[in-house]
Amino acid sequence: MSEYIPTREDAFNLLREYTETPALIKHALAVEAVMVHFAGKFGEDPVKWGVIGLVHDIDYDKFPYGHCNKCIDIFKEHNWPEEYIHAVVSHGWEICSDVKPEHVMEKVLYAADELTGLITATVLVRPSKSILDLELKSVKKKWKEKSFSVGVDRLLIEKGAKMLDMTLDDLITETITAMKNSAAEIDLKGNL
Q: What is the model's pTM?
């Protein structure tokens, strides 16, 4: 018997089953977009990477104190492959999980999760409220303001960039590009 491979539709349905908060669904879609983008850059499977990005916070809405742990039960109950489970759990490394990101896919997820939040917050304070006119310099300016988006762990993003052997600027630029590709879906098209 061959191993079950979740489709994008499977992942979205599971996300909707466990996630009700609109902001968390938009965050999942943003991370999915980033994962698909980076899969293309690394010559990997964009569907697989996107699915993992889409469900990475599957347990956060209903089980915030069991984040990156409760998801294991959820995925096993739905017969998800161990590789997918490992990837999702690894994005909480040294925060709520002791599973270290090993594969490049896991490293991208680890770096992109927090970064999408900072980029989204930066977009929402701009006059256009759009990611379509967002540039690196705007994100870097907000990055330096420690009182801005205080929940975003900038050290974690830097650690993720190092894991990927990328400069912080390159990681931010690629993430912005990925999110621009899904501007309407993640509700960041704004006035443009």
A: 0.95
